């Protein structure tokens, strides 16, 4: 998957419960990512799904959208690296015109 971008499509409701995590350190497992963002001490909550978009970027969807705001309010550090966390916005090519 190196250098490739995965196409991630979802409903607007699911997107509202999702975050984009980028700058993920090399070698960090998906399980470690899930544990970190599930911990309430990191602002997390129950996770519905994690999709690795690239090797260093993931889409995390929570069961409860309130977790998005609490995660965004705190710095997130994985393996000594501060990762970038933002509300999920679909990539341009996934946005369909109405």
UniProtKB/TrEMBL annotation:
- SUPFAM superfamilies according to UniProt: RNA-binding domain, RBD (SSF54928)
**GO molecular function, one example?**
nucleic acid binding
Domain of life, per the record?
Eukaryota
What Pfam families would the database entry show?
RRM_PARP14_3
**Entry's Gene3D superfamilies?**
3.30.70.330
Q: Which protein, by its recorded name, is this?
A: Protein mono-ADP-ribosyltransferase PARP14-like
């Amino acid at each position: 998957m190196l250098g490739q971008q995965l196409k991630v499509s979802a409903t607007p409701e699911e997107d509202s419960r999702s975050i984009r995590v980028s700058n993920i350190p090399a070698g960090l497992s998906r399980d470690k990512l899930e544990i970190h963002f599930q911990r309430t001490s990191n602002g997390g909550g129950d996770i519905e799904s994690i999709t690795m978009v690239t090797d260093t970027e993931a889409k995390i969807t929570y069961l409860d959208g309130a977790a998005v705001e609490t995660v965004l309010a705190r710095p997130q550090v994985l393996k000594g690296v501060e990762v970038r966390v933002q509300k999920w916005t679909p990539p341009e090519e996934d946005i369909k015109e109405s």
